[in-house]
Write a structure and sequence with these properties.
Chains A, B: Belongs to the iron-containing alcohol dehydrogenase family. 2 copies of one chain form a homodimer. Chain A has 15 helices and 9 strands. With 385 residues, chain A is of the alpha/beta class.
């Protein structure tokens, strides 16, 4: 196990009806900017419930944060924070709204050009506004970590930042709020969480059995419950457990003290930025080929993953790895997510475009061994055609 | 899964050489009371290393905190805090020193009689001094939670308290510091962590697969590495992983959203208070009989535990449970911890004494169903004779 620092001060309030806790969690005198995405926060009644729980507090609303939240939109929220003397932010939504709120929290008090927050990967963030979240779409884990991914439209760039200053003070996780999600988002959430876990787990062994077994436990739970979330869309217990998996997946407990990959995410971000494909779908169409091409350096963990998560213990190493990758692909397809570029009308021509963006963004040494250079990225993309 | 609140703001700094981080973690202007136990902090050189890392800071030392730290001793530390205008506490040791430091942190700023902290189970604690820890004996998980167990000698009472105000600000976990531990303490630590996990896991199913699998992963790791810690006493990687298991076992990740038992601990505390037997040994001699007597209400989880941790899947339910309890007992014995009251020269006469204390302390409805009344406690004790 590597040396590590673990720190995660976010207070999680989990369960049905927990939105009423806002009255305890948000300072009584706060002037609150409530940030949300499209119309669903309003149409499902969650926004009204949030406002009722906030009682007499002074509230300003900011809707319209996109999936893959944009710098352009968020800077409008920053302007409102300043104009209206907002002193507390409340994100109501999924990972995009929460990621966006983290950026607003840092940018609103940032001395200098807020774009530097992203160019410095968050290193230049020295303070941020306090904020909490009400999670309605479990997937990204943003509700219990300090990371954020922001898209700048004019540059077709998707960049991330991290800072201990942008942990949510609290996150309210009410699984009943996820019952109104469209099936597409349920599928996306399960697959997104799955690949968050593999990015921290499918690397190489460093003798970290706790992190490994926690990761395997989360993956097993997704494999078991993911399909049930589609076949039993009203089953709150299934939703509750999936919600907790997604939160734990990126809270640090499985990722501290072990190597990380994230090549799938880095390449996936380019696909979203270029073609506006759902994040989860981009990484689902990349992972199988990614594991195939990199099977040698990932061999030990692929065999362990195959055995412990899929029960694959027979055959040569290559046979076991083939079967393991196939099981992974099948799982995504069972979740109704297509796993090949061609399923999204992407061809060799598009791969050329993606390569240009990867090069432009310096994505030339990805993965736990930095071995994913541009040539290997092209191989991976072609393997997934 | 039950509704829950999870909050754990302790910063963990894990790895060899991390004691030097004290210089960043303790405020530069702090006047620090360094609390420790017996002579080992000094003889192993850890205390010197801590003092070197604290540099020019003003330091007062307070040694002599006992295993099962006493109210009497800790109130002396409280007096020193007040006399010397101490504003930061640093625990250097294992669970006893850390538990004691938590009490000092709360008692030193408590308005009223500090004994009320324990009589109110911590409910009356509204503030506490800031403190950090340097962990030298992994076992109790106290380095990353808000619980503390204190003994008041004059009453032969062992009472606990919890408060969000007594989370350590940071804990430094350097696994090399555990290499000098006597074998007895290594054994105790492994078994203590094991039973911390079973208290939160071996109850009844509430459809909480994440918590279950995390608990099983920790138990599997103890089963795998515990014996290696005895046979390979210089293996730092083994120690590192055991250290992380013990911390995770009581950090909240496996215990939130599920029922808890703790009957084994409650009865065990009486044995320590009466006969000064190591905490881990008291619970090791209670757990097998506890599971045997309560096999019906715990059936589902005992079968799950047997299958997933011990691979026991054949036979009738009772046969599987018998085999599972036997495996648990054997594991403790492999860790060189005896598992019967008679191994500690305790007889029926002692059971009568224990019963008097249980009644005196109101321990009349223990366990996840409050079904462990005095009669059942006697049965359990007799089954473990």
């Amino acid at each position: 196990m590597y040396s590590f620092d673990y720190y995660n001060p976010t207070h999680i309030s989990f369960g049905e009806g927990k939105i009423t806790e806002l009255d305890k969690l948000v300072p009584v005198t706060a002037k609150v900017l409530v940030l949300f995405g499209g119309n669903s926060a309003r149409s499902t009644g969650t926004l009204d419930e949030v406002k009722a729980a906030l009682g007499e507090r002074n509230i300003v609303e900011f809707g319209g944060i996109e999936a893959n939240p944009t710098y352009e939109t968020l800077m409008q929220a920053v302007a409102i924070v300043k104009e209206e003397n907002i002193d507390f932010l409340l994100a109501v939504g999924g990972g995009s709204v929460i990621d966006g709120t983290k950026f607003v929290a840092a940018a609103a008090v940032f001395a200098g050009d807020p774009w530097d927050i992203l160019l410095s990967w968050g290193a230049k963030v020295t303070t941020a506004m306090p904020f909490g979240t009400v999670l309605t779409l479990p997937a990204t884990g943003s509700e219990m970590n300090s990371a954020s991914v922001i898209t700048r439209k004019e540059f077709q760039a998707k960049l991330s930042f991290m800072s201990n200053h942008v942990f949510p003070q609290f996150s309210i996780l009410d699984p009943t709020k996820t019952l109104t999600l469209p099936e597409r988002q349920v599928s996306n959430g399960v697959v997104d969480a799955f690949i968050h876990i593999t990015e921290q787990y499918l690397t190489f062994p460093v003798n970290a059995p706790v992190q490994d077994r926690f990761a395997e436990g989360l993956l097993q739970t997704l494999v078991e419950l993911g399909p049930l979330a589609l076949s039993q869309p009203d089953n709150v217990e299934v939703r509750a457990n999936l919600m907790w998996v997604a939160t734990m997946a990126l809270s640090g407990v499985i990722g501290k003290g072990v190597p990380h990959d994230w090549a799938t995410h880095m390449i996936g971000h380019e696909l979203t930025a270029l073609y506006d494909i759902d994040h989860a779908r981009t990484i689902a169409m990349l992972l199988p080929g990614m594991l195939d091409i990199r099977r040698e350096s990932k061999q030990d963990k692929l065999l362990q993953y195959g055995a412990r998560v899929w029960g694959i213990t027979q055959g040569t190493n290559d046979e076991r790895i083939d079967a393991t990758i196939e099981k992974t692909r099948e799982f995504f397809e069972t979740m109704k997510i297509k796993t090949r570029l061609s399923d999204y009308q992407l061809t060799k021509t598009h791969i050329d475009e993606i390569m240009i963006q990867l090069e432009r963004h310096g994505m030339t040494a990805l993965g736990e061994h930095q071995e994913v250079d541009l040539a290997m990225s092209r191989q991976i993309l072609e393997r997934n055609l």
